[in-house]
Write a structure and sequence with these properties.
The chain is of the alpha+beta class. Helices cover 31% and strands 27% of the residues. The protein is built from three helices and five strands; from the N terminus they run E-E-E-H-E-E-H-H. It has helices at 34-57, 96-103, 107-113; strands at 2-7, 10-14, 22-25, 65-73, 78-87. It has a five-stranded mixed β-sheet, covered by helices on one side.
């Protein structure tokens, strides 16, 4: 898998079948941090759903790439907008809308749309 870091809040994941994990910064000062891990986890979740869809539709996933962009919002400071663009050269045009619906079935996609309850606790000593 190859992660291209285009700049702040912008990355593309390609070469999903490659067992070597590569992070390639394309701009000065860009690094793989928690937000890039977050975006990459959404990409991998989506990719796994698309692979399942491709098997059912007898469609090749060669060349599939996913680009993620995000923007921050205030009060509280967070990722407030996420854009995902999927490039899938082998998908027939007649299957584009079905593939888009399939991509939206990723568990993380659903989790962001319906946020979980989240509790944080601080302890002294081991957890």
């Amino acid at each position: 898998m190859r992660i291209l870091l285009h700049g702040p809040e912008d990355l593309t994941v390609t070469d999903f079948g490659d067992p070597e994990f590569q992070v390639v910064p394309e701009a000065e000062g860009v690094h793989f941090s928690a937000m890039e891990m977050f975006a990459t986890s959404i990409v991998l979740c989506t990719y796994s759903v698309l692979v399942s869809y491709a098997e059912q539709a007898a469609t090749d996933t060669t060349g599939l790439a996913v680009r993620m962009g995000w923007a921050y919002h205030e009060d509280p400071y967070r990722i407030g907008d996420i854009q995902m663009d999927i490039s899938w050269p082998g998908i027939p045009e007649s299957r584009l809308q079905a593939a888009e619906r399939a991509a939206e079935q990723c568990t993380l996609h659903h989790t962001l749309q319906t946020p979980p309850n989240f509790e944080t606790r601080v302890h002294q000593g081991p957890v």
